[in-house]
């Protein structure tokens, strides 16, 4: 290198070895002097900082360099380093280069030791001296202390690895700019780490957010599609956690060992690893409870169904949809298939018909949320006729039984003998049903040690009995009208003092072990069709609570009442439908039961969805025609 700092051309650097050896000592001395001058200038600049203490690091002139041994390898090394220094200087002088790239990659500041390497080969003693001085200078200076603190641990590790004398012989140290500091406080991070892509891939339909809403109320995350053990230590949403568990879907991955050890038709008899076991139950139901929606309605045999059944199955005041929908009908419409299609159309694609049965004009249908059909057993039904002539099937009972995980369910809809004074006949109807209803058939008895052959309700865990029981108010019509007109709010206590069903249940004559939620609605029988006026005919029937929903559980407090009311918007019959919403505890089971294996009425499902789509298209077309037919006049 010349005195003025210009580069030596490559072809001049590679001239004859004799010329290079003759001038090497002089150039080495000159380069050493230049290095000391550069070091003194840097120390003077740093001395301007009052906080920097440089009294211990005064520069000293280098000692006389030793004559190095020349070799072919050293010549090649000098040639490579000369080319590297030239490229570095060209990148700094290039006005078109990127400032960021040049500062990070191309900006190379030769240290004093490196100048000796380029000019006259490696000199060990001088390198160590100047490196210690420069290292102490950089450590003591406030500028370098701040810059070093701004670097990451990874960059400091790299700097410490390059600071050894041996590494300086091969690599040159690179100065990096400190990262930009924010001018103001950073915005607070949200607890949800769900990206836009995950949010689009794992979007849940609006009408399927029932568990998420319930979980938010209780301060827990929804774990329907993810492992609860992962969610326990995470501060994110379930969709993100589930996406991390599997590459292809949000479902939990299945190990090959689990596939080998169990069959999805019979499965494992062990408690762990079973399809209906505790692990699978906790994954889908962390609280081990399901929502059950029960509706009962005496349709009075009307052929014309309501135009809209949303008020019956999806009332506006219900926050979430339930897991099971059980609908019992007495004196049903002549076309049972049409009735079930209408139910499917109303519930939509998220629910499927698990089982449907009929007994004359008694209809009973069970819809289950589509995701949970794999955990249901095969359903069974049985019927009982309470008429003297068994061919007349207008009075009696119809029951459907199935098992969900390890909990057995029994749903019974019935129609008892009518008449104001026929209380004893209705008690006989009840006794005949509990003795003659032949359930379960293929399903195992939930508790064979405590079940009784004379009572079907003792063979199941959760029992719901609903229908038109025909129990009346033992009071004259005039007195009942006076009580109804004087009722303030939802207190129906004055009416229940005369309720026949409440009185016989207190005596223990009927519905042993059953309960009923408090009633806060008006009597559901008997109305004039199409209006809210009680019977105005010459018979003047007394308003009564004939339509009821009762429940019974093997374990105390396993059934919690969420809602119990009547549907006053459906007026096509002389009865008002009664609906009940319940939260039912469930328990894990064993895979020793005949599973449903995803079986459902596919034809009914497709027809209901087709009608639903057709109805929506017609509504959109009507709205479009209405908007296009608007006439604007200019006065």
Under CATH at level 1, the class of the domain at 287-612 stands as Alpha Beta
Instruction: Using the 3D structure, state the CATH architecture of the domain at 287-612.
Output: 4-Layer Sandwich
- The helix tally amounts to 22
| Helix fraction bin | 25-40%
- Provide the CATH superfamily of the domain at 287-612: Endonuclease/exonuclease/phosphatase
Count the E strands. 11
Global geometry: globular
Strand content: 5-15%
If you average the pLDDT, what whole number results?
Answer: 73
Side by side, the strands of the main sheet go: 3-4-2-1-11-10
Main location: other
GO molecular function: inositol-polyphosphate 5-phosphatase activity; phosphatidylinositol-3,4,5-trisphosphate 5-phosphatase activity; phosphatidylinositol-4,5-bisphosphate 5-phosphatase activity
Subunit structure: Interacts (when prenylated) with PDE6D; this is important for normal location in cilia.
Protein name: Phosphatidylinositol polyphosphate 5-phosphatase type IV
Secondary structure elements and pairings:
Blueprint: H1 10-13, H2 17-47, H3 72-93, H4 99-106, H5 112-120, H6 124-140, H7 142-150, H8 153-162, H9 165-168, H10 196-201, H11 210-217, H12 228-231, H13 238-245, H14 256-261, H15 278-284, E1 289-298, H16 310-313, E2 324-330, H17 336-347, E3 351-359, E4 362-369, E5 380-385, E6 396-404, E7 407-415, H18 423-436, E8 462-468, H19 477-485, H20 493-496, H21 500-507, E9 547-553, E10 559-566, E11 578-585, H22 602-628
Parallel strand pairs: 1-2, 7-8
Antiparallel strand pairs: 1-11, 2-4, 3-4, 5-6, 6-7, 8-9, 10-11
Helix pairs in contact: 2-5, 5-6, 17-22
Subcellular location: Cell projection, Cilium; Golgi apparatus, Golgi stack membrane
Biased composition (Basic and acidic residues): 148-158
GO molecular function, one term: phosphatidylinositol-3,4,5-trisphosphate 5-phosphatase activity
């Amino acid at each position: 290198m010349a005195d003025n700092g210009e580069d030596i051309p490559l072809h001049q650097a590679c001239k004859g070895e004799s010329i290079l050896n003759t001038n090497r000592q002089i150039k080495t001395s000159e380069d050493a002097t230049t290095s000391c001058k550069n070091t003194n200038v840097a120390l003077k600049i740093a001395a301007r900082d009052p906080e920097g203490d440089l009294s211990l690091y005064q520069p000293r002139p280098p000692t006389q360099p030793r004559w190095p041994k020349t070799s072919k390898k050293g010549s090649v090394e000098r040639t490579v380093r000369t080319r590297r220094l030239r490229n570095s200087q060209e990148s700094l002088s290039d006005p078109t280069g990127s400032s960021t790239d040049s500062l990070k990659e191309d900006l190379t500041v030769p240290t004093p030791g490196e100048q000796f390497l380029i000019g006259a080969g490696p000199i060990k003693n001088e390198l160590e001296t100047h490196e210690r001085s420069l290292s102490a200078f950089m450590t003591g200076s406030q500028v370098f202390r701040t810059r070093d603190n701004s670097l990451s641990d990874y960059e400091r590790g790299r700097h410490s690895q390059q600071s050894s004398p041996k590494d300086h012989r091969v690599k040159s140290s690179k100065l990096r700019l400190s990262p930009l500091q924010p001018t103001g406080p950073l915005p607070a991070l949200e607890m949800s780490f769900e990206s836009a892509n995950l949010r689009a891939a794992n979007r849940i339909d609006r009408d399927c957010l029932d568990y998420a809403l319930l979980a938010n109320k209780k301060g827990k995350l929804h774990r329907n599609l993810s492992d609860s053990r992962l969610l326990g230590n995470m501060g994110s949403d379930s969709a993100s956690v589930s996406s991390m568990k599997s590459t292809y879907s949000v479902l939990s991955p299945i190990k090959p060992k689990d596939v080998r050890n169990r069959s999805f038709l019979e499965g494992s008899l062990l408690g762990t690893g079973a399809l209906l076991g505790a692990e699978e139950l906790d994954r889908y139901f962390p609280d081990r409870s399901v929502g059950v929606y029960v509706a009962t309605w005496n349709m009075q045999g009307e052929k014309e169904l309501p135009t809209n059944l949303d008020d019956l199955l999806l009332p506006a005041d219900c926050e979430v949809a339930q897991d099971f929908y059980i609908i019992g009908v007495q004196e049903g419409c002549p076309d049972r298939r049409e009735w079930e299609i209408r139910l499917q159309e109303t519930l939509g694609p998220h629910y499927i018909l698990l089982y449907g049965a009929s007994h004359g004009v008694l209809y009973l249908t069970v819809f289950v949320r589509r995701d949970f059909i794999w955990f249901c057993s095969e359903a069974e039904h049985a019927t009982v006729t309470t008429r003297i002539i068994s061919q007349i099937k207008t009075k009696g009972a119809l029951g459907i039984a199935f098992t969900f995980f390890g909990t057995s369910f029994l749903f019974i809809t019935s129609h008892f003998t009518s008449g104001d004074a026929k209380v004893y006949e209705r008690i006989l109807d009840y006794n005949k049903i509990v003795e003659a209803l032949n359930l379960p058939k293929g399903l195992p008895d939930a508790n064979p040690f405590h079940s009784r052959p004379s009572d079907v309700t003792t063979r199941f865990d959760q029992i719901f009995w609903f229908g038109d029981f025909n129990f009346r108010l033992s009071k004259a019509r005039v007195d009942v009208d006076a009580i109804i007109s004087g009722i303030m709010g939802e207190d129906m206590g004055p009416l229940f003092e005369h309720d026949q069903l409440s009185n016989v249940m207190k005596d223990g004559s009927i519905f042993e072990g059953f309960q009923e939620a408090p009633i806060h609605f008006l009597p559901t029988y008997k109305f004039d069709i199409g209006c809210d006026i009680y019977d105005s005919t010459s018979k003047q029937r007394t308003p009564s609570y004939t339509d009821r929903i009762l429940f019974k559980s093997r374990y105390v407090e396993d059934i919690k009442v969420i809602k119990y009311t009547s549907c006053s918007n459906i007026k096509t019959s002389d009865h008002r439908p009664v609906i009940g919403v319940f939260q039912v505890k469930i328990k894990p089971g064993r895979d020793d039961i005949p599973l449903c294996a995803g079986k459902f009425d596919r034809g009914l499902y497709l027809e209901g969805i087709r009608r639903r789509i057709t109805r929506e298209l017609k509504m959109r077309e009507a709205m479009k025609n209405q908007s296009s037919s608007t006439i604007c006049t200019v006065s």
